[in-house]
Amino acid sequence: MSASVSFADVKRMLDECAPGHTIRLATHSRVVTSNDKVYRTLPKFDKIEVGHIRKMVRHLGIARDCANGFGVI
Amino acid sequence: MRQEDDGKWWMYGVRPAGIAASGANIDEAFLRFRARYKETLFDIAQEGQTFKDYATEVERFFNEGDNDSEDERLWEGALTAIRSGSCQPPTPFANLPRRSPESYPSFIKVERVDAEAKDRRLMPSENVADTYAYSVPKAA
User: Is A11 an 8 Å CB contact of chain B?
Assistant: First the structure.
């Protein structure tokens, strides 16, 4: 398991696995919404530790099989 | 809190659920989790137009569980295992204070305590340092 992945890869995963999602920037974090849920704590860095992505996937209810296909969790 | 394949300790939120933080040891993971929690409250404060907006969003953030509730199930399973005596605390947790989760139920209450508050003032005795603990075994 890679310790971190690029935000570009995370975005590609969200585009495919969480259609209709939104991402906005708050002062300290990225705020991702999907399925009427909000994940407020995605780091703003270009490289993001996989643990954050794993938690976001669980929180937003993104299909793990789909996310696994992008190598981000 | 668990050690992942990357060798780091990861603290995954249950309530609030939408936070994760890592560290080289459990203290660092806890400190980074706290910092992330605080930063999120700051973000919410910057977005709200009124105190009511702030309170509503903080409560939503705190109470919104994970869609799959996996971390909550893992936490409950770990608590059951500890209380049954079927496992011993891993070394990093061996010296933590022991507490009963029932004595510290998770909840959040947002109160206004500044000069605009009508009937509420913050007392010094209400300043309580946050910390973490390991569950006590179930009493015989």
Answer: no
Domain boundaries along the sequence of chain B: 2-135
**How many other C-beta atoms are found inside a 10 Å radius of the C-beta of residue B136?**
15
Instruction: Name the residue ranges covered by the structural domains of chain A.
Output: 4-68
Instruction: Write the pLDDT tens digit of every residue in B22-32.
Output: 999 999 999 99
Of B10, B19, B70, the CB nearest to A41: B19
Q: Is B73 on the interface with A (CB under 8 A)?
A: no
Residue A59 burial class via C-beta count within 10 angstroms: exposed 0-12, middle 13-18, buried 19 and up? buried
pLDDT in tens, B76-115: 998 998 888 888 888 888 888 888 889 888 999 998 877 7
B17·A40 Cβ contact <8 A = no
Architecture of the domain delimited by A4-68: 2-Layer Sandwich (3.30)
